[in-house]
Write a structure and sequence with these properties.
Strand content: under 5%
Largest sheet: 2 strands, antiparallel
Strand order of the largest sheet: 1-2
Shape: elongated
Number of strands: 2
Helix content: 55-70%
Radius of gyration: 20 Å
Oligomer: single chain
Number of helices: 9
Structural class: mainly alpha
Order of helices and strands: EEHHHHHHHHH
Length: about 200
């Protein structure tokens, strides 16, 4: 988000939430960081990329908003590869509370309460759909639904790994190339795990 003499903020700094589309809070935080970093760089007489690097580090590590956004993005990528009827079925069967728990990055998917909560939420809604006789109206097979839910579980596992990676964003420009290689390797592993076609790769 920085280059010699330049800082990106707001939408130009990719502060829009990849799932909700919201971006005012992230834009405000990035604007604050850009202004603060620019003032320090001018005062120090160093507006090089290295001199402005603190803007990147603040957003990803010190404040962490960039890391939270990066950890949410895998769900956006995974959802784009799933047919609309299957997404609609997942939304119908998984209550909002459990959906937020899956997408949230503070709780590991391996946590027992998370697995119980998600499982109970699906069972609750499956029973509701069965009693109403509307399960078939969801338009997907049980195998398709199971595969999609397993895919979201795998995506959550990668979201945790992306969060860890971005939480260790380099404090200086000199560490960026090695960090980017790790990010590219993680991207490739994620795409392979969800069997995403090359033309659908985001990065």
């Amino acid at each position: 988000m920085v280059a010699p003499g330049y800082l990106a903020a707001g939408g130009a700094a990719a502060t829009t939430h990849p799932i909700s589309g919201k971006g005012i809070r992230g834009a405000a935080i990035s604007g604050h960081s850009a202004g603060r970093t620019a003032a320090k760089a001018v005062a120090a007489g160093d507006v090089s990329e290295e001199g402005l690097w603190g803007h990147n580090h603040y957003l990803y590590v010190e404040h962490g908003t960039g890391t939270k956004l990066a950890a949410s993005d895998p769900f956006n990528v995974a959802a784009s590869s799933i047919d609309i009827p299957i997404l609609r079925a997942i939304a119908a069967l998984l209550p909002e509370k459990q959906m937020k728990e899956i997408v949230g990055t503070e709780t590991s998917i391996e946590d027992l309460t998370t697995k119980l909560s998600v499982g109970l939420g699906v069972v609750e809604n499956l029973w509701s759909e069965y009693r109403k006789g509307t399960f078939e109206d969801l338009g997907v097979s049980r195998d398709q639904l199971y595969e999609a839910l397993v895919g979201f579980r795998e995506t959550k596992r990668f979201a945790d790994r992306f969060e860890d990676l971005y939480a260790n964003y380099p404090a200086t420009k000199s560490g960026f190339d090695a960090w980017r290689e790790d990010r590219n390797d993680l991207d490739a592993a994620f795409y392979d795990a969800i069997d995403l076609a090359p033309e659908d790769h985001k990065y």
